[in-house]
Amino acid sequence: MNSREIVTAAIEFTGPERIPYSIDIDIIRFRLERSPDDVQEIEKLMEEAPTDFVTLWHAPFKEWRSVGGPEARRVDEWGVTWHQNNAVAHPLEADWKLLDDYSFPDPHKPGRFDHVITEIEQNEERYLLGTVWYTLFERMWTLRGFENMLTDPYLNYDRFVFLREKLLDFDMEILKQWLEIGVDGIFFSDDWGWQSGLLMNPDDWRELYKPCYKKLFDMAHQGGAHVWMHSCGHVTEIIPDLIEIGLDVLNPVQPQAMEVNELGNRFGGELCFHGGVDVQGTLPRGTAEDVDSEVKHLIKTFGCFGGGYIGGTSHTILPDTPLENIRALFEAFERYSKRQASDL
């Protein structure tokens, strides 16, 4: 089986010959903050590990407009100002009246997908994952500001719905182009959880957002693609809803937000999970033995259904992680991914 077939089998519960996995490391920050020897070893580990799926991005970041200055801020095509990975200025935050003259990006902007074709040609045997990132809620709050977006559905409902539908239209046009290109899966994203629970009442989520996701998920499936969704935090309450409307893969599993055993017991065999090795606790503060044990437990919990697990971490590995734990992580996935979960 090639990587595409292995990932597909894991998602569809048809018996992959091994557990697929992908380890996300912020190598740019490692190069800035760690020794050259550490970086060299980490890059070697990354190079030797299988790259089972490739995440593809439209509108590459190099097209963002720099606003200069010592803080190196950049402005994206939505007019949102970013510092590092944080949205720090929101074009519609001050007043809803700003929406009247706001110019939405063109989903069919010439050249938006040109670079993707080259990436696909270089990864013919890998599972290809197109992105519709910052799908709804996250895109809305980067435009309006986080606190505004939590209250807008109740204080400015008509404006909220107008903005949501404009973004949904944009997303569907981007999705249509991914499906025409022929990717294997679509990766949506909206962070819906704190570490202790949902950002809003689940019934409000079901009314305000669930129907939109269903439209997107249905369109992806009709185009022959799996549905992946990234949603950080404790989102257990809405997992049954996401399964109902067609979610295939949930990313990430955050052990400090959601209980791994509960997820396996309640949803194992229905939903494929991606991630789970704890970047908040085990990796930066545990031992190599702890890392090994956690990888084994995740595979045993989620991967015992003839599929159901794609290995990885709960988020990006940062430079506070000891080298021996990073080494142990790669070694553990290499060691256990080829075994039957029932034998672990």
Task: Write structural notes for this entry.
The chain is an alpha/beta fold and 344 residues long. It is built from 14 helices and eleven strands. The protein has one domain (3-63, 104-343): Alpha-Beta Barrel (TIM Barrel). The chain has helices spanning 3-12, 27-33, 36-48, 114-121, 137-144, 146-155, 157-181, 202-208, 210-222, 239-244, 260-267, 282-285, 288-302, 323-336; strands spanning 53-56, 65-68, 73-75, 81-83, 86-89, 127-132, 185-189, 226-230, 249-251, 272-274, 309-310. The strands form two sheets. The protein has a seven-stranded parallel β-sheet. It has a four-stranded antiparallel β-sheet with strand order 2-3-4-5, with no helix packed on it. The mean pLDDT is 94.
Q: Which helices and strands occur, and which strands form pairs?
A:
Blueprint: H1 3-12, H2 27-33, H3 36-48, E1 53-56, E2 65-68, E3 73-75, E4 81-83, E5 86-89, H4 114-121, E6 127-132, H5 137-144, H6 146-155, H7 157-181, E7 185-189, H8 202-208, H9 210-222, E8 226-230, H10 239-244, E9 249-251, H11 260-267, E10 272-274, H12 282-285, H13 288-302, E11 309-310, H14 323-336
Parallel strand pairs: 1-6, 6-7, 7-8, 8-9, 9-10, 10-11
Antiparallel strand pairs: 2-3, 3-4, 4-5
Helix pairs in contact: 3-14, 5-6, 6-7, 7-9, 13-14
Overall geometry comes to globular
Low-confidence stretches: none
Enumerate the strands of the largest sheet in spatial order, edge to edge or round the barrel: 1-6-7-8-9-10-11
* β-sheet strand percentage: 5-15%
Order of helices and strands: HHHEEEEEHEHHHEHHEHEHEHHEH
